[in-house]
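Quick illustration, no need to memorize.
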Amino acid sequence: MKNEMNEGFTVNKETSTVNVKRIFAAPGNQVWAAWTEKELLDQWWAPLPWKSKTKYMDFSDGGYRLYAMVGPEGEEHWARADYTSISPKTNFKFLDGFCDSAGTINKDLPRSDWNVNFHEAGEDTAVVITIRHKNLDDLEKIIAMGFKEGFEMALGNLDKMFS
């Protein structure tokens, strides 16, 4: 059963990291699939009323996902996740950044280094995420852009997929 006390979103300014823990009421293989298959990712990754649209995805070491957050008026904000390490069913890492629709990284905006861990416990699965930024300015820029609110809403969408 989910225990809300074991969940959280914390910011560590000293290390320029965001730490997120979320427990999902689903077995590990289902939670892993929701994070690693584009058809499932697109169902929850964007905060409503926005939608996620994956243009390309190769979930492998050295592969990447090119996707857009599509707003209610049709506006698109593109991002690219470059997968740097994958340990099936337990962990994957990627470097995330804003880009254009062709996947060219926007060097004026920060990139973030994600480490996503999966821990199955009975019928539930905990996802523990550490997101590192190069420096405090990058972290603060991402937070100011609404990352916390948007990501928590997206994780709520994922909760609903499993209920």
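The first strand starts at residue 8 and ends at 12.
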